[in-house]
Amino acid sequence: METKVLINNKHCKRMNNNIFGFDLGGTFLKYGIGNQKQGLIYFNKKRNPSKSIHELMLLFKKILNELLELHPNPKCISIASPGIIDCSTGLILGSTPNLPYLQGENLLKLFKDITSLPVLIDNDANLMTLAESKQFLNKSVLGITIGSGIGTGFVDFNGIFHGNTWKGLEAGHTIIVPNGRQCLCGKKGCFEAYASANSIIRIMNENFPETKSLTIQEILNLVQTNSKYYSTMQTIYATFATALSNLIMILNPDVIIIGGGVIEIPSFDFTYLKKGTIQLLSKEYHNVIIQKALYGNQAGVIGAIILGSQT
After folding, report:
1. Do 155 and 161 meet the contact criterion of CB atoms below 8 Å apart?
2. Is the dihedral of CA 231, 237, 242, 243 positive or negative?
């Protein structure tokens, strides 16, 4: 399955400051070409069936060859990847439950086997947040992406916040229900265990066996049209709002941007989530801006291109 943004190939080949951006997800590997001046000028995605790091690198190599046909002389390659990443070395330190074979690997070193181009890497939620933050000059932005897992990033005038040892802003694995639902990271009660696409599906399947063959979009559509299912989803929204309100109290951001595949589903009740979050905050925090992501599933690629442009 592919989704393309068309480009003028001749114009693309004339540019020598273009960056190849990748966004590695559990379902799709998204990629594109862009630069600081023009932004994203080409976008595509391929399903990621990889079950091992070897299969993943074969997919990367195939896509890289495709991009080199469009633009033979990129400035660099920039990658948005899930997990806790030491951006200085490329080592993936942990927390990749949806792509477990990534943990302990070093994508920068692996890329040296398939290209001589410079390669950069950062966490996918960090780069989604970096992309979205460009709408809000001189503002602090907390980004949350809701897909098969939950990623979070924070950007202010200092740039991307990484924490002391590259492990900051792993809010998807903060515990919001003590001894609660089992999370794929090994802990119990994590934010991700309640509000990711996979977790919403599991919770609805457990409560309503008739939903077991349904996708996340079909489940949310069903919730919207049948009150039988709504109270369970309200509990999920309330747990989500609790996590958001805690993050607002800790970070005091100007803006919260929420993106990812779940948020883009029209039947996801974003208004209800937003109201529930504000209700949990004291009045001095009510001026926080909470809105959907602008760039949708292209945000990680755009953020990767911005990262490459900054070097």
Report:
1. yes
2. positive
Q: Cα separation of 56 and 64, whole Å?
A: 12
Residue 26 tokens read as 């559990």
CA distances from 283 to 146, 257, 258, 279 (A): 27, 20, 22, 9
CB 61 within 8 A of CB 114: yes
pTM of the predicted model as reported, rounded to 2 decimal places: 0.90
Q: Which of 220, 244, 81, 101 is nearest to 172 (CA)?
A: 244
- Which residues, at least 6 apart from 106, have a Cβ–Cβ distance to it below 8 Å? 89, 90, 91, 92
Phi, psi of 123 (to 5 degrees): -65, 140
Which tokens sit at 169?
């802003």
Condensed to tens digits (0 to 9), the pLDDT of residues 233-279 reads 999 999 999 999 999 999 999 999 999 889 999 999 999 999 999 99
Location of structure tokens 């803006």: 255
End-to-end CA distance of the chain: 32
- Asked if the model's pLDDT at residue 14 lies above 80, the reply is no
pLDDT at position 15: 56
pLDDT tops 80 at residue 199: yes
Model confidence at 123, pLDDT cuts 50, 70, 90, reads very high
Residue 78: name the closest of 174, 13, 160 by CA: 160
Confidence label for 94 from pLDDT (cuts 50, 70 and 90): confident
Residues whose CB falls within 8 Å of the CB of residue 33, separated by 6 or more in sequence, listed in order: 7, 12, 18, 19, 20, 21, 40, 41, 42, 67, 70, 71, 74, 305
Which residue intervals of 34-106 are DSSP H helices? 53-70
DSSP state of 227: G
For the chain, which domains are there? Answer: 9-128+297-309 (3.30.420.40), 138-293 (3.30.420.40)
CA–CA separation, 174 and 95 (whole Å)? 12
Which residues is 22 bridged to in the sheet? 31, 79
